[in-house]
Every structure is written in C-alpha cells, then in structure tokens.
Amino acid sequence: MVVRNRTASRSRIGVALTIAVLAISGEAAAQQVASIYLGAPIYEKPSVYTEPILVAGPDSTAHILTREGVWYRISFDDSQGQKRVGYVQASYVRISQLQRVAPKGTGSSPQGAAQAPIATGAPTTTKPTVSETPSPTNAPPPVNLPRREAPASSATTPPASKARLKNVKIRGYVTEFRSPTDFDIEDYRITRDEAFSLDFENASPDIAFQLSDIRVGVELEIKGSLNEETGELNAASIRVDMEQFRSIKQTAFVSSAPEGIQLLDGSWAGELRADAQVIRVTNATAVTFKPTKREKKLAELKKKNGNEESEDAAEPLQSLDQVTIGMAMTYEGKRDRETGKILAEKIEFSTNDLEEGEAKLWKSLKVSVKAAQGLKPGELKIDKIGKFKLVADSEVQAYVSQLGEQLIPAQQRDLAAGDPRRIPFQFYVVQNDAVNAFATPNGIIVVNSGLMELLDNEAQLAAIVGHEIAHSTHEHTWRSQEYRKKTRLGLTIASAVASAYGLYSFADLTNLVNAAMVNGHSRSLENQSDRIGLQYMTEAGYDPREAPTVWKLMGKKTGVSATNFFWSTHENAPTRRSYLMNELKNNYRNLNYTQLRTNTEEYSRIKTALIAANPKKKKIKVR
Description:
It is built from 13 helices and 28 strands.
C-alpha cells in the first residue's frame, strides 16, 4: 500500500505568529507570549488531512483562543489585515514568558507588556516537548525527551548530500505525536517521504487502522534513512502490528488493598490501579472470584462428606473484602488508544497457591557457592542451569544484595518465613562481560559484571534488578510453561512441562529456564516486568526516569540492532526505551521526583572495585 502526503503542496503565504496566550481573570489577563515556528502550517480545521490556509512567516501576531488536544485554536491578522481563525499544532508553539495585560476596553497596557513580535523569522532555540498535562511545580517533567531543532525553511535546509545518512530499522512506541507525518519514537523524529509503504502484521477484518490512528503509545516498525546528526528518520515504510489493538489477557498479583471501584446496582464501576497501570471497570465488566485447584479439592471433599455443595465455577465478586494482598488477578480487555488505560471486559480474582509443579520447579534449582581459593575465583552453581564465576570483591556482592533486598516488594517481605509462597531471593554478581542479567523462578537474581560497568548510577542498577525481581514475583517462567503446555508448542517445551510434573527428568527443564535467561520471556511478560520494575524501584525511593536511560546506554553500545538482552526477536533499544517512556507519562506524571534518589557515592566506589576485580582488565605483557 502506497500513501501520498496530501500536505506536500502547501501555500507559502507568510504569516509569522507571535502568540498571546490569554487566561481572563478579574481586571487583568495572564498573558504568556510565545512564538510559532517558521513554516508551521495553519489549518482551517484541526486536521492535517486538509490543505493549510497559511504557513507561518515573519511579522504577525495571534492569540490562542482554546486548546483542543494537540491543537491550538488561534485568532490572527492575515496579510490584508483581516481577522482570521485557524488551528496550529501545539508542537509548533514556543511559550517564553508571562506578563499581565489589561482587558479590552481599559485603554492601557501594563508596564512590560510586549509591544512587538518576539520572533522575526525562524527561531534559533530548540523546540520543547508539549505535555497535555503539566507536571507538578515541585518536580521536573517525568521524561526528558530529546530536544528538536525548529522546522526551517527550504532555503536553510542543508543539502542531503552533506548529512550523515544511514539506513535503519527501529521498532518502538510513539512517544510524542504532532501529526501522522511528524512524530517521535524515543530519540528519533519520524518524518516520511511523499510516497511510502504502509504494511500490516497480524491483520484481520475486525480491526481497522488508518494513519490518523497513530497516537502516543502505538507501536510501529519504521524502516528508512536516519540523519545521525539531527536524529530525523525519514520513513520509507511503516509497519503496524495489529495484535496490539486486540483484547489482552494478563495475570498480576494484588500488592495493596484494592480501591477506586464500587458496587452499584449489582455491577462494579470505577478505575482500579493494578499491574502498575490503570484498569477501567464499567457495568459491562464481569468481576468474579474463582476457586483454585486446592479450594476445589476442599469443596469436593466437603461435598463428598455431605457438608455442602461443590462450586467449581467463578462467582460474582460480592465485596472488596474478598480480595487480599497477594491474590492473583487476571484481567482481559483492550487498551484505550487515547489514555493508555485498560478497558476491562473481565476481571477474575483467585487465591495465589504455590502449585505442586511450581514447588518442584523451585526445589530443582538448588544453589551452591564455592569460596575463592587463592587465584581461583569463587563459583556460583545453579542446578540444571550452570556454573558462573563470581566477582571476587565481597563488597560488590554485599552491595548488590543490599540493593536487591530493598527492591523486594512488601507483600513478599511480609510473608511468614515458613510460608511456601515466600521467595528465597538471593543476589549475585558474576564475572561476565556480556551486558545481561537474569532471574530464576525461585528468586536467584544474577547480574553480569559487564552490565554493571555499562550503567552510570544506582537508580539504573535498581531498574535492572527490579525488572528481574518482577520476573520471579510474577511467576513468569511457570506461567510461560503452563501457557506452552496448553498450546502444545514444541517437543522441547512439552518435555520441560512434563518434567515439572515428574514425568521426565528435571534436566529437561534447563531448556526452558535457559531460554528465558538468554532470550527473555514473551512480549507481554517483559512489558509487565518493565511496569512492575518501575513500581518496585519507585517504592524503594529511586527515580524511575533512569529506567529508560538504561536503554539509551544500550543503544549507544549496540546501536539499533536487535539485542538478546530481555528480548531476542525484532525488538531493540528504542523499543524498550520508548515503552518505558510512555509508562512514565501514563502512570507517573504526578510523581514528586524531588523525594527520589538517583545515585550514591557508594555506587561509584563499587563500580571502580568491580572493574578492578575483572582479570581481563589487567593485561601484562611479558617480554
């Protein structure tokens, strides 16, 4: 499918706009003086699929009348002095200062009011990110998006031959939207040719998608020419995976007493925060409580003894008192494209029992540690997984263990020592230059020395460790195993599943756990670990904005090629970073960042000790 750019033949009538943003209050108005970038299209309606009525040029003024989503409705004088009303995208507006202006009819203006246009031509400053909802006054914006150069006229655009161009493919989530022809994915500003291909993956007749449906949070794959100096990626093709618009099903665990929904006329309604996101419940949402296998057996036993009838099916939830911390919550629904919230169709609560097969899986992954002997480093051995050389410095090991303990969620820490659901977390740093980390189902968290050497601060390390803890607390290996068992995917997986039930040797389980270690879990589970990891690090007092920065560092190290770190398919650093950036926008917009920490002096000392303990860093030539 080839799409033509309908706005390619714009009128070049010059209208430079100096914007006066008015908020009438009492006798005077609060006026924010701003500029519109040279070349910004002005539309009669808020749609980029109509022909612009004017294009911004020098020496004009205008007032903003209203804000409508990503658009400003403005009033201005055209070149003939006629009053006009039109629409301009908010991303082309730069607000610079606040003044007081007397209301119309007073015959005067306050001292210091602007008497002339601010900008006379293309502004030399960079274009800021415009947020739909301002951040709190005591905190910086939750995501520091890259600053972009203002659009310039064709006369000032450098020749393409001088630009450093590179053909790339990135896959990620839209983080800033100006129009379907101009949006950001992570650090990349996406534009497109007049002709380009639009392709669909997992398409079906029941899901429609048009270019006008591009929004913040929509996942796209872009192939095109990247200007490495400006970060502009001119798309030759855009590919949309339609799977993201289908109903999703996910299981999470209740971490705090549920609130935000209430029972009205027999139906639940409201918004519930769970799985580190917002889930919207309506009277059409089926909210139920389902007994576990253990509870079903008890019910069957009572029925057999004549005590009461057995009820296997889920029953409607009668009260929030039925929901306790640690319970499993499975929800189904579609993500709203505008808000990022889950529009729930079903929510099912159940007790989180440690199943027999999962208990056997935990037991099979025994840990043993050998202390260092002379020049021989210590060794970590995980049965059915492998052996790893431990970083020799005991302070490094103690530091990471202490940090990991802080990140364990309260619902796990508060479990009694003998509770079978309590995960016996252990944290280790191993000598391996590969940039990686992994977690086992029974809470063994392993961080490679190469990953720690890459990171800049303690909050970034907390993001990694929190992500891995989430894999264990949310039972990702076990859930992956159960899913594959039901769908019967592959003889290796089937063998691993059978081994968990004692039908085959536990040695077969190595394939499953190693696959998760090296290649990561499924897309939905990795996304969940990202969300929950942000929650864990924030609850421990770390600045969650450092999580996307980890992937900026990864991008510098690996480029935009696919990486085995967490995901092994077509995803890359922009995918991971853009997902986290959108999570911060959707769920941490009003967080008070002034109370959170990024680094400690100890981290720098530990990182220095880590590098010094690496024998590969010390190369002595013998002559």
